[in-house]
Amino acid sequence: MNLNIKEKISTYNNVFEERDQVKRSEQAQLATDNFYTLITKFYEKGWGKSFHFAPRYEGESFEDSIKRHESFLALKLGLTSNDKVLDVGCGIMGPARNIARISGAKIIGLTINQHQVDRCEELNNASSISHLLDVQQGDFMKMSFPENSFDKMFAIEALCHAPNLKGVYEQMYSRLKPGGRACFYQWAMTDKYDPSNSEHIKAKEMIEYGNSICQLKTTEEIDNALQESPLTVLETIDLAVADSKNDVPWYSTLQSGWSLSQIRHTKISRTLIGNILRTFETLRMLPKGISNTQKVLLVAADGLVKGGKLGIFTPMYLVVVEKQL
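The chain above was modelled as a monomer; its predicted structure follows.
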């Protein structure tokens, strides 16, 4: 991958030092593109092919919860082998491959980041369902697809990067066929978020900076943007609210602990990994700036855990909408 990581980190930091939200939103898509060039390999190594959270039951593995969360979305959409589907903000299409496999639907992924496009093509071609998959580079705020192109759409924790929610909803409405349905898992601040509480503000800013988000919206703001859009709302619900005391918190994998998934978040492990990365940078075995990329991801992890524990943030506000006939 030919890039100046140190320069991209500097550009990224400049965006989040901008306090004017209008100016920051103008740079949001560039920041997101840089962000995913920097962190996609980190995500894939540490998280897997599906870059999202999931509600998890006691005794259920992390991997099984991820697949179940994706299958639930396919169920909500009512996908069949006759459907042409758009994955909005597709990442490296881990969810799309699982959903295509269980539904037989033809899925096209859309991502702003060319590095992710290249990785999608590599992974899709190696899968047994490559004939059901395609990917395109593009900005979901300015889709190049013709109107009425897709039977269904989904977005998994991707619309938080939209500088204008109403704008992306309108883009999706235009490309949906009449009678088509869309389903999103959206990141949002909950009704417990207090914009005058300094601890709440800090957690929100950490999540935004660590995940390249221009400005996190509340569930109320998402609902308002949906009402202002031409889409018809069928359902909204926060799936992060536990149905049982035995449920595992969605942020548990990011907490420090002694399980295989949590040990990398202990202070000792983080310090050790940081020192190794800096040593490799000095020896020119890794590009300059890799250790700074790790710092961005640690801010993200700490902010998400804090937001989850306080109950002020959810990564899975489920929205189901349709384009009426």
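DSSP finds eleven helices and seven strands in the chain.
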